[in-house]
Fold each of these.
Amino acid sequence: MQIRRQIVVFDTPDLERESSFWAALMGGEVRGDEDDWRSVYVDGEPRLGFQLAPNHERPDWPDGAQQQLHLDLYVDDIREAHEHAVGVGATLLRPADDVDAAGGFQVYEDPSGHPFCLCWG
């Protein structure tokens, strides 16, 4: 089997808000005008997909049911990345113990509640 392309697809009740958030976070653009699908392209390549799921139930992590998956995004400057993520609509769920450590991560959620980490080191 040869895999030609790999993307992660998020279920969301709000295609515009969710895809726009990830495009802004990743420095990409939203493509597609279907009623139930959007894609985020970065550097001309599809990176993420978004499928309309009107009955999507927002994850309740870390206090609720166990999450099913999350993304780790590695950054050079956690302070800059944090400001950017929050500025485009992310919510910080769990800050790092020490942002000056050689390596670490902080946990965020996107507008639909999907968790992701900004990691460094």
Amino acid sequence: MNNPSINSVKPPKSLLRQVGRAIADFRMIGEGDRILLGVSGGKDSLSLLQILNHLRTYAPVRFELAVLTVDPEVPGFDPQALKDYYERLGVPWHYEQQPLMEQAKVHMDGDSFCAYCSRMKRGIMYRICRERGYNVLALGQHLDDLAESLLMSLFHGGQLRTMKAHYRNQEGDVRVIRPLVYCRERQTGDFARRAGLPVIPDSCPACFSMPTRREHMKALLAQEEAGHDTLFSNILHAIKPIMTEGGLPEPGWPASSATGAE
């Protein structure tokens, strides 16, 4: 039997509006889409799961939702506790294990472990989409992530780039969406705490070994925001054109129906 305390968790209207608007603005979800959500067990992916699961009860289009956890087999990471949670939500869960840290020691060439791990996880996600018939892969990056990626690209790559909101993979058979692109990290953190979501702490030893460039960018942005409260809204306005470079895939649900918080 479903647990009412889990199923009745309703995301705040601010998150529902922002995600609904992003889905409409970037035409992320269409009729009949089968969406696979990458869930690490962190606050962002679990918050997005709750939001999408709630939105599909009144969205103007019908879509399916399932989750995938990729276990990199690092010490301390145990997502099995989430299995009952997904079952109570009534959401199919796919689970893949791969010893990414051990593989990185052999195959990583001039790359950071985080970049290697991310690339390998993405390949696994694409494979599961193909094998299981999902045409959309949903990821949990938010506006803070996009801002940090922008600074990293500018400072270390000499390019004006950030994560895209909606695009097709290189093979063209999977659409990738980021419904949290208008949301702040503190919003997902607050929601996860208030709702009592079963967040799994990040336990990757590679992430703890030294401060990453991304952590440095996060601190820099926090310092600047302390004196400029419109910093992230200004960044969002500036990066919108590069969030849709190359155009958007096929249209999704109507804007007029997507932004209301039921």
